Here is the input.
Amino acid sequence: MVFLVAVPLCLGIALASGAPLFSGIIAGMVGGLIVTLFSGSQLGVSGPAAGLAVIVLAAIKDLGSFEVFLVSVVIAGVIQMLMGFARAGIVAYFFPSSVIKGMLSAIGIIIFMKQIPHAFGYDKDPEGELSFVQADGETTFSELINMVDHITPGALVIAVISLAILILWERPFMKKIKLFTIVQGPLVVVVTGITLGFAFQGTDLAISADHMVSIPVDPQIDAVTNFFNQFTFPDFSALGRYDVWLTGAIIALVASLETLLCVEATDKLDPEKRVTPTNKELIAQGIGNMASGFVGGLPVTQVIVRSSANIQSGGKSRFSALFHGFLILICAMAIPNVMNMIPLASLAGILFVVGYKLAKPALFRQMYREGWQQFVPFVITVTAIYFTDLLIGIGIGLAVGIFYVLKRNYQSPYVLKSKEEEDDHHIRITLGENMTFLNKASIRKTLNKLPEDSFVIIDASNTRHIEHDVLEVINEFKEAARVKNIQLSMCCLDHINLGGFEQSLGELVMKNDGAAA
Here is the structure.
């Protein structure tokens, strides 16, 4: 399943990157055969990533040749390895769950929408091109309009039959039949697509080679020689160029971030909830990019489309990712002509199911039930990724998530309790464990609203850390309390480092907890 999804994506991403088509196949092989060996991810699948296509396209043009660009890919691999040894993988743990789920849903919607033209036989936009605004100036929406005038009936028939087979394979009664649990639906779809392609020849439903997978093949030489002739090697004479190193650093940073995001998303999809060691993953990706650059491949990252296809198909361990790389190698070397018989419409049917499972309506309902603090960042992440790209969308979603964190800190950095005793108004403010500048506005607002002639205790018994900003607010309130005839006491500040405020607050500190009580 992963192999069938990966091949057209590898070719499409290479085309979108302005690189030789075979460089995408090489990256797919490296992602499967090399990265998997060093990775700690049980279900993650690596290969060329759509998110790097724009960077690669610009870099090849700016650096002057693909061979020079390959030097940057090798450098990116070295930098990623150093990042792994420096334990930079911890970055993955700072992304909110709502943003990661939004990323998965956005990718699912994008996959689904991008496959509609392929299902209708309109293949102007290559597989693997996931941006809303396309390189040709069209958008995902305008492509759907253009598709209407270029429908290929044969491709549409194959797509409908493929989707029907996959839906049938998902039915509970089919899962009870042992044969259908061994023979996977996607494999049946591909075989059916090839068969129908032959059957439609010479009829009104005939489909041309433009609507098929297109691994580069030279008909003048044998398949094995053709395979090895397409490897390209880096021009290390450019190793001293500043722009080559800068490109390598950019690729390393973007590829690492995409990988870490995918790792986090893949772990969430894992039915067994295993946790991938992120630093080990960066080292594995670094080794993969060094290898890919040395033999003429595109940069690799862990990729959510292939990883989710792996999980949905029942992958349990790294073997499926390794085997998908082996299949790419064998088929590209021995039977590229057979691969070129697979209709893109068949693969569209497979990717429809992948996309739907990533963006199920049930997930949107679940996020809504969890409240606005989860739902809003989720929806904004989905929208932002769909209309921009993965990294920009994640950045926007993360900003919204941080806003809600700030809002929560503003609303509840402490507990305020008030009670009337005879003619006195007693108020106790129990501070939180960590009082930072984020709490400054909220606590100032509360202190300013305290009534005159009251008795106030600010209790820091649960507090481990108070930042200078909060102490400054309390110190300012000490002066205001005298004007309002407020009796102010501080409880349990003796165990906290107050910096330069010991003297100014010292008279308020009541070291005897019982006295404060």
